[in-house]
Amino acid sequence: MKVCRLSAAQEVQLGQEAGRAFAFLCGLAGEGMDRTRREQLWAVANNAALLRFSLKEGAYPVFDSAVELLHRMELGQIARLAQQYQQRFEERA
């Protein structure tokens, strides 16, 4: 499994994918979240969406959705891989 740069088309889809992941996480967390908790869930959802598009096995995506990624990966692993993506691709921009 390798971390690849997002294409322009994937960047356009990123927000929608993150929204679905956020809705999933909110469903797990239940009602009555404070602002800090919602921001934390948004961060996790955004990282999951980023990795959904950037993680590849050969030329193929490892996950079909950010929600699938959330089911199969631990939060610490998501955070590490998202940080790896940011260090590799975003800090050069």
Mean pLDDT: 94
- Give the strand line-up of the largest sheet: 1-2-3
Largest sheet: 3 strands, antiparallel
Radius of gyration: 13 Å
Structural class by secondary-structure content? mainly alpha
Q: Compute the number of strand runs.
A: 3
Number of domains: 1
The poorly predicted ranges are none
Separate helix tally: 4
Order of helices and strands: EHHEEHH
Helix content: 55-70%
Given the C-alpha coordinates, what overall shape results? globular
**Content of β-strand:** 5-15%
The span between the termini is 24 Å
Walk me through what this model shows.
With 93 residues, the protein is mostly helical. The protein is 70% helix and 8% strand. The chain has a three-stranded antiparallel β-sheet. Helix 1 packs across helix 2 (35-54), helix 2 (35-54) crosses helix 3 (66-72) and helix 2 (35-54) crosses helix 4. It is globular, with a radius of gyration of 13 Å. The two termini are 24 Å apart. The model has no long low-confidence stretch (mean pLDDT 94).
Task: Describe, in short, the structure shown.
By secondary structure, the chain is mainly alpha-helical.
Per-chain topology:
Layout (H helix, E strand, L loop, with lengths): L1 E2 L4 H22 L5 H20 E3 L2 E2 L4 H7 L2 H16 L3
Antiparallel strand pairs: 1-2, 2-3
Helix pairs in contact: 1-2, 2-3, 2-4
Keywords:
93 residues; mainly alpha; three-stranded antiparallel beta sheet; globular
